[in-house]
């Protein structure tokens, strides 16, 4: 997944916030935009963390003792 793919998903699902979090009960990461969500492998989640590490629209925190990411859409980058 690329930055553009994530931002396009946000537009498609009419969400201004995307959350990537690990859920213990499912033992996997989920990308959530509004009411829509999809599961991601740990390697895909790690790749997204890397892609957004220096992005001003990204906020990192911890959720269920794992890194989590929140991306706020302000513009759709090229």
Strand order of the largest sheet: 3-2-1-5-4
What radius of gyration results from the CA coordinates? Answer: 12 Å
Helix and strand pattern: HEEEHEE
Distance between the termini: 14 Å
Poorly predicted sequence stretches spanning 5 or more consecutive residues: none
Shape: globular
How much strand content do the residues show? 35-45%
The SS-based structural class is alpha+beta
Give me the count of strands: 5
If helices are DSSP runs of H or I spanning 4 or more residues, what is the number of helices? 2
User: What is the residue-averaged pLDDT?
Assistant: 92
**Helix fraction by DSSP (H/I, runs of at least 4):** 25-40%
Summarize the structure.
With 78 residues, the protein is an alpha+beta fold. It is built from two helices and five strands; from the N terminus they run H-E-E-E-H-E-E.
Describe this structure in words.
- With 78 residues, the protein is α+β, with helices and mostly antiparallel strands.
- 26% of the residues lie in helices and 40% in strands.
- It is built from two helices and five strands, in the order H-E-E-E-H-E-E.
- It has helices spanning 3-12, 42-51; strands at residues 17-23, 28-33, 36-40, 58-63, 66-72.
- Strands 3-2-1-5-4 form a five-stranded antiparallel beta sheet.
- A hairpin with a 4-residue loop joins strand 1 and strand 2 (28-33).
- The protein starts with a helix and ends in a 6-residue tail after the last strand.
- The mean pLDDT is 92.
């Amino acid at each position: 997944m690329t930055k553009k793919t994530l931002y396009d998903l946000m537009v498609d699902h009419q969400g201004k916030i995307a959350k990537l979090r690990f859920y213990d009960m499912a033992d996997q990461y989920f990308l959530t935009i509004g009411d829509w969500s999809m599961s991601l492998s740990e390697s895909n989640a790690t790749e997204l963390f890397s892609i957004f590490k220096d992005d001003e629209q990204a906020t990192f925190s911890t959720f269920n003792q794992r890194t989590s990411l929140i991306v706020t859409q302000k513009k759709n980058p090229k």
